[in-house]
Write a structure and sequence with these properties.
Structural class: mainly beta
Helix content: under 10%
Distance between the termini: 44 Å
Strand content: 35-45%
Largest sheet: 6 strands, antiparallel
């Protein structure tokens, strides 16, 4: 397995490319090789794997927490994924970057703690995987920013995505500030 690691405009967030062997039978390739990632300075130990299945027009996030590093990718379909700096103490608070992750481009995102992660399903179905440095943190210990919060001003492919109740009811940043959160 080969690994190409690219920096992004967000400190500590990496855009990774893995390779695949392809022939008439299909494709074969690696998802994670600790030795290879460690050789590239990506030395987080992962303890859990999670998977999400979504349909076209579903938008999940913007979620994160204070302790979990995530390695994410789309194994089936295509997603428009956004990573945003959600650390109010960071000089880059509110900055974001979008990435296309798909089963064809073999891209991954390395997302440190205090960054919000979100993704929008662009194909009929998607399978999105997470490697986590901590067991899944319960929602009450995570932060959630609203997908259309003017603080971030994220440019989404749709203005009418399908949202969970949690994401639909998330407060805007200025509402959170008024409440002292």
């Amino acid at each position: 397995m080969n690994l190409i690691v690219n920096d992004t405009s967000l400190s500590g967030v990496k855009y990774l490319t893995t390779d695949r062997f392809e022939d008439l039978r299909g494709e074969y390739g690696g998802v994670y090789d600790e030795e290879l990632y460690f050789a590239h300075g990506l030395t987080t130990k992962f303890v859990a794997d999670q998977v999400s299945f979504s349909h076209r027009n579903v938008l999940r996030g913007l979620h994160g927490d204070t302790k979990t590093t995530k390695l994410v990718q789309c194994l089936h379909g295509t997603v428009y994924s956004v990573v945003a700096d959600c650390n109010p103490e960071s000089p880059d608070f509110g900055k974001w970057q979008a990435f296309i992750l798909s089963d064809k481009n073999h891209k991954q995102l390395w997302v440190p703690p205090m960054y919000g992660l979100s993704y929008y399903a662009q194909t009929e179905t998607i399978v999105f995987t997470y490697k986590l440095s901590h067991s899944l943190v319960p929602p009450e210990e995570q932060f959630t920013y609203r997908w259309d919060d003017p603080l971030f001003n994220i440019h989404w492919p749709s203005k009418t995505p399908i949202l969970s109740v949690r994401d639909k009811n998330a407060l805007l940043f200025n509402e959170r500030q008024k409440r002292g959160e």
